[in-house]
Write a structure and sequence with these properties.
Blueprint lengths: L2 E8 L3 H13 L9 E7 L16 E8 L2 E7 L11 E5 L3 H8 L6 H9 L2
Parallel strand pairs: 1-4
Antiparallel strand pairs: 1-5, 2-3, 3-4
Helix pairs in contact: 2-3
């Protein structure tokens, strides 16, 4: 089945937040699993993206785990401002599953499983 990853949106503090969460979970007295930052992709100089000049060196996408749960984070900066919304990154095996999801008005797990199984 697909992996669903919560996606956290920040103005310019994604890296600081990831470090804070990882340090907090790793410092828990009864932790069962290590927390860690897996990967960070940064805005680069000359990048053609809205607001990229103001975000040079900041996080385009950051992937981290807290006690085995994977999360993603990004800095939206001045163009895409922070708000209360929540997003999910859905990792799909292939285009067939993506197409099935795009046809849905709501996510029906049984229909996704059928698409995943090729039915």
């Amino acid at each position: 089945m697909n992996k669903i990853t919560p996606f956290l949106w920040f103005d310019t503090q994604a890296e600081e937040a990831m470090n804070y969460y990882v340090d907090t979970f790793n410092g828990a007295p009864y932790k069962k699993q290590e927390s860690r930052i897996i990967d960070i992709t940064r805005y680069e100089k000359g990048m053609e993206a809205p607001g990229a000049e103001a975000l040079e060196g900041k996080v385009i996408t950051g992937i981290f785990e807290l006690a085995g749960q994977r999360f993603m984070a990004l800095d939206g900066g001045p163009v895409f401002t922070f708000n209360e919304s929540t997003a999910f990154y859905v990792e799909c095996e292939d285009q067939r599953v993506i197409n099935a999801m795009l046809k849905m008005k709501k996510i029906i797990v049984a229909d996704l499983q059928k698409a995943y199984d090729g039915k």
